[in-house]
Hints:
This protein is of the alpha+beta class.
Amino acid sequence: xxxxxxxxxxxxxxVEAAFEELSGVEDVTAGYxxxxxxxxxxxxxxxxxxGHAEVVQIEYDETVLRYEDVLEVFFTIHDPTQLNRQGxxxxxxxxxxxxxxxxxxxxxxxxxxxxxxxEGGYDDEVVTExxxxxxxxxxxxxxxxxxxxxxxxAYCSMHAxxxxxxxxxxxxxxxxx
Length: 177
């Protein structure tokens, strides 16, 4: 059975590329969510005026991956303590955000963040927003599978490749062969 998760942790090109590595992931779509502007464009979202974050929507086979697994990968590949930024990308559009699709996902996400805080693995407080998904807007086609289409892009080499390597190393059993 296919489930869907929506998360944002910086540039969607990098988050998308990391999730594409996992067995059980059927599709990853770059898009925008969490804001107030209907059907925003990339340029509008980059302005920071739409309230939207760059996010990815992950369709996965729940017989292979659980929602908790998706969250574990997500919190491994970005820094959830950085407010409105990830690496060189600054602005609310790059915030750490989990957008649950239902009450069960919300409860799991809140418990996951609470457990992260209790573990004390971070020097700073986890600032990841948990906000119910209202509408997901697909990003323009040129942003879909960006890393796959542009493997030599300097930005991706510097920021997506380390995320992919982290996934391959830490989630070796879950990586597609």
